[in-house]
Amino acid sequence: MGTDDPTTEPRIPTHGWLIFPVLAFIGRKTTAVLDQVGGATYLLLDALRWVWRALVAKRVRLGGHAVVSQTVRVGVRSIFIVSLVSGVVGLILALQLAPPLDDFGRKDLTANIIGVAVFRELGPLIGAIVLTGFAGASIAAEIGTMVVSEEIEALEAHALNPVRFLVVPRVLASTLSMTALGVIASAVAVVCSILIAVTLLGIPYSTYVSNMVDQVKLADFLSGFIKGGVFGLLIGLIACYNGLKVTG
Question: What is the full DSSP assignment across the chain?
């Protein structure tokens, strides 16, 4: 006859408690992501406010010299590496696409595929990847150094808004630079693919160019153009935000 011993402590299942560390980890990561997104969005709205006041309301000046100097630093210095990478991508695309298409007797379609892929997607993407590593890290490090050396506090002490004088010129410069770099990357990739197609693949120059012109529409070009601007805006914004968040 079994009876419960009142002195025996009830056994608490332990397997159910394993879910709490997992939930805590997910919660911390989610909170961190939301904090990053919220902070970057607030910084973007603040920067747009200053742009509006300068370009539309004509109440303040952004400083064209700062925008030009940052554009030279961010964009002009990136042209060589962007051209190099996009040129190699154009060569590889032509070499890899032509043999499979030649099996179906349509090697001339290489131009059609490369034209759409480069102008719509690969051109802006190549420029964004290069600009992120080449200029994005530089912007974040520069602003982070200003934060650590208390230069940001010095600006605020003199009633100078850091977003107006530091963030806005860099975000505008990265947006303009990335838009131009996307076009340059697309053009270089196409030119290199033409060189390979004519010299190694045996595709006539006139056929290659005419197929590409017939296939690539204005919408494809505008799509890549807009993507380049958006990528540049995000790169500059995130770099400035991470720089301002530096502590030490």
Answer: -----TTSPPPPPSGGGGHHHHHHHHHHHHHHHHHHHHHHHHHHHHHHHHHHHHHTS--S---HHHHHHHHHHHTGGGHHHHHHHHHHHHHHHHHHHHHHHHHTT-GGGHHHHHHHHIIIIIHHHHHHHHHIIIIIHHHHHHHHHHHHTTHHHHHHHTT--HIIIIIHHHHHHHHHHHHHHHHHHHHHHHHHHHHHHHHTS---HHHHHHHHHHH--HHHHHHHHHHHHHHHHHHHHHHHHHHHT---
